[in-house]
Design brief:
The structure is a homodimer. Chain A has three domains: about 45 residues, no CATH class; about 130 residues, Response regulator (Rossmann fold); about 140 residues, Response regulator (Rossmann fold, 3-Layer(aba) Sandwich). Helix content of chain A is about 45%, strand content about 15%. Chain A is built from twelve helices and twelve strands. In chain A, strands 2-1-3-4-5-11 form a six-stranded parallel β-sheet, with helices on both faces. In chain A, strands 7-6-8-9 form a four-stranded parallel β-sheet, with helices on both faces. Chains A and B meet through α4, α5, β2, α6 and α11 of A and α4, α5, β2, α6 and α11 of B. The first copy, chain A, binds a DNA duplex (30 and 30 nucleotides) through α2 and α4.
DNA sequence: TTTGTTTGCTTAAACGTTTAAGCAAATCAT
DNA sequence: ATGATTTGCTTAAACGTTTAAGCAAACAAA
């Protein structure tokens, strides 16, 4: 068995030429004859030569690795985004290292350190819910390593961002509910400190005002949008004297929790209360009634994010700056708001 | 701004000592004086020194990267396994590169090549449904790189394996259904070529025989276990003259599909037909009725797999061999079989 | 005092690749 | 036939780290 790996030097010795010639032959350098190239490739195959990525990365100062940080892979949105990014980046010769922050700021910082330590050529991230302190992301920028954000971004970082139009999505949802005759629309949202959730809240408020509906503070709620949060907040809404006739929940898991509570209280959805979620998780079309939700175009976001990264490394001289790509989201109307 | 990264040499120059001394100081070598160590650490911090992982990996012949191949991250089981592995491996100084095969043999081969190219110190994998040709996995072994399999393994590879007892799980399920009075239990299984699904089928058949129930070939079905497969096969079962009074589906998504079809045909679950899934995906407790399923102990599998890897790299002289760790799964009884 | 041991560093090579610089031979232009 | 250009390679250094080997100084033991 051939335990010791073959190197360029082994090929060179076999053919009595220099390692430099071998390296160039393997890269199809124009200054190497066809004859030599063929011989090199033949011997390389015979010795089962595999290039040592570490050595070339060290020499070239480029690892061809891209670090990815997501809140969690265990959501349809993020896993789909990652799949697309992987596809685009692999074709360009990059491999990706996926890390999860689990929505924790501390874990996110650890992930950033890990990725920098691994000498990644760039970092693509979607920020944890908890994150408000941007110093760790500034650290990436200060090292001159490309940083691209998607979905959960932050204007202040002044880097490329790819996401959907959360503000407009709220308008779409509110107007859809109004068209169904709803007059008291509640919003169970995320925390305002996260930009996308703030945008959804702003969009909701502006849409309510624009359509001349009264804005009731009791109907606007912030939470972490877990299933449990959805249950709790829906329960609270049902305790109001003046109950809503529709609830727009800024996350599908929380929407599902709300649906469970409505069901347990024998409230008919959509007839008594209409419900809209956000994210278009697969289960929204599996539960009964199926839940109206917003498709965030995960595939497009994945591809665009990867392509944005590639553009950045192709033009390193261009200074990083706030460059937003905002996609229009799509409302998928299902039984819960029909 | 400090664009060029500080190296060991920079620290050495600053203090007028050799790079070797700096390297040793940073690793707390006993042959370096406390005074020098303190000085080195002070300057390192001042220059914002970050070790170049590529250089040390090249020199040491060890990348401290572990490659992970899973069918997809977008399932609760796999993402939970990965989270635990990451925790254990990070603490031991390893980082992980996650790749997805999307159940495709071709993609899996590409992933293996990618990981080998990246010089990972080991590969942890759960095989794609499609995979029958093991030559690519043999390639990993032949390079002397540790290979650990979990969940979807293959005895013939003769490597460490961590998984649950699929055979016994089928017994548990069948006996649970019998205890509820079921006499005609169908099985919508995976493809026999995948070891775990074969074990579930064998377990099902043996349990049926052991309990003196007639074994009806029409009630044993192989499929890819997607939601659509579940719908189609459940539909076929309902066309039988002699319908089953219980269905054991070897995957939760397919079980959900089956449930949808039962619901659409106004068949009461569990009263007319009892239903059991496999995998304990979160939605099993979210749909109505909630679905009885099998908890695969993803956390334990993740930790054990990572620890098995660490044991292997700690004892490289020990030859790889079939070393199985089999956990007992847990039946979570819910409304669909109550 | 002599010898041996420990301490604290240095020197130099190595890991496997890439690449700038250079040089001889072959080919071309005139 | 001469000089210019192209072709096809070699030499040697570099990337940043680790580590075996070695050496001088300090200390300890006799």
């Amino acid at each position: 068995m051939n335990k010791k790996k073959a190197t360029i030097k082994d090929i060179a010795n076999e053919l009595n030429i220099s390692s430099a010639a071998v390296s160039k032959a393997l890269h199809d350098d124009s200054r190497i004859s066809k004859k030599t190239k063929d011989a090199v490739k033949r011997v390389a195959k015979a010795l089962n030569y595999q290039p040592n990525h570490l050595a070339s990365a060290l020499r070239k100062g480029k690892s061809n690795l891209v670090g990815v940080i997501v809140p969690r892979t265990n959501s349809n949105f993020f896993s789909s985004v990652i799949e697309q990014m992987e596809d685009v980046l692999n074709k360009a010769g990059y491999n990706i290292i996926i890390t999860q922050s689990n929505e924790s700021f501390k874990k996110e910082c650890k992930n950033i350190d890990t990725l920098l330590f691994t000498q990644v050529d760039g970092i693509i991230a979607s920020m944890a819910n908890e994150t408000v302190d941007l110093s760790y992301f500034e650290k990436i920028k200060s090292k001159g390593i490309p940083l691209i954000l998607f979905d959960r971004g932050e204007n202040d970082l002044n880097v490329d961002y790819i996401g959907i139009n959360d503000y407009d999505s709220s308008h779409m949802i509110v107007e859809h509910l109004i068209s169904k005759g709803c007059k008291r629309i509640a919003h169970i949202g995320g925390y305002r400190r996260t930009r996308i959730f703030n945008n959804r809240i702003r969009g909701y408020i502006d849409a309510i005002n624009k359509n001349n509906l009264p804005l009731d503070k009791n109907l606007v709620i912030e939470s972490a949008l877990t299933l449990e949060d959805g249950r709790r907040e829906m329960g609270n809404l049902l305790k109001l004297n003046n109950k809503p006739d529709a609830v727009y929940v800024a996350g599908d898991y929380a929407a599902l929790g709300a649906l469970q509570v409505l069901d347990e209280n024998n409230i008919n959805v959509p007839n008594q209360i209409r419900l809209v979620g956000f994210g278009n998780e697969p289960f929204t079309s599996l539960v009964s009634p199926t839940i109206t939700s917003v498709n965030q175009h995960s595939k497009a976001i994945g591809r665009l994010t990867a392509e944005t990264f590639l553009k950045r490394v192709a033009n390193p001289e261009v200074k990083q700056s706030l460059n937003k790509i905002i996609l229009d989201a799509e409302l998928i109307v299902r039984d819960s708001s029909e």
